[in-house]
Amino acid sequence: MKNLLGSKGASKNLIALAIAVIGILVIASVAYTNGFFENNQNQNENENVLSANEISEKVINFINENILQGQANASLIEIVEENGLYKVKIKIGEEEFDSYVTKDGKLLFPQVIDIENSSSVPEEENEEIVSTIGNFLISKDEICREDGKPIIYFFGSEGCPHCVWEHPIIEKVAEDFDGYILFHNNMNSSTDTDIFQKYSTGGVPTLVLGCKYYRVGSGQSNGEEGESNILTALICKLTDGQPSNVCEKVQDLIEQIQ
176-225 pLDDT, tens per residue? Predict the structure, then answer.
């Protein structure tokens, strides 16, 4: 069982997802200290203790609805009492993580470290993960090209509702860059597995834009127009602002890209 820090054998992209979840959950645990899982302040100490079922339901709902928002899905493996807290084992994508929650449900501790047996995190796992608009992660790789044109990859399945939502948006955006990019449309396809394995956690939809910007999950929280504009701006960054009639419409977003 892994904790939210990952393990030495985990891939770079799985670590990226874990660290991203850690960062957001740590912020959320502080921000929601006084509001997360609210209880009546007039209840006595015993009444403030939530059942394991109540804790697990609210933790999973909180992560899925407020944190992941369709980018991935968290599910419960088990919840047990340990060291005066609830220990919650959560699965996100193909990875499993251990977290702790206070019995009154007010504090969530997503990062679990055994201070007696822990060792330093390997240098590669300690690399800073940088994200940009649309929750895309930024790789340190060179832009991948074919015939001098950036390659845009989409991976999805018709059995995945988030893929079905995302697919027509990226298709339409790719059409706007006809002649400037090459679009590898891997809907229900097993091609480009090397790219998928490198930039995806194993979940779909996965978008890889020129091997520079990548994201696992849909952009439904952005809305169709917002997602279209974000994808357009990121691709414009790869094509040096061409075609100009397309890119000038999202210049404000292009300026926000790191």
Answer: 999 999 999 999 998 999 999 999 988 899 999 999 999 999 999 999 99
Cα-Cα-Cα-Cα dihedral of 158, 190, 19, 239, to 10°?
-90
Residues 75, 93 contacting (CB under 8 angstroms): no
Closest to 217 in 3D by CA, of 192, 199, 238 = 199
**Is residue 139 domain-shared with residue 165, that is, in the same domain?**
yes
Provide the residue range defining the domain that includes 168: 131-254
Q: Are residues 86 and 184 in the same domain?
A: no
Among 121, 114, 88, smallest CA distance to 15 is for: 121
CATH number at residue 43: 3.10.450.520
Q: What is the pTM of this model?
A: 0.56
Question: How many other CB atoms sit within 10 Å of the CB of residue 244?
Answer: 11
Handedness of CA 163, 169, 172, 174 (dihedral sign): negative
Give how many domains the chain has, as a whole number. 2
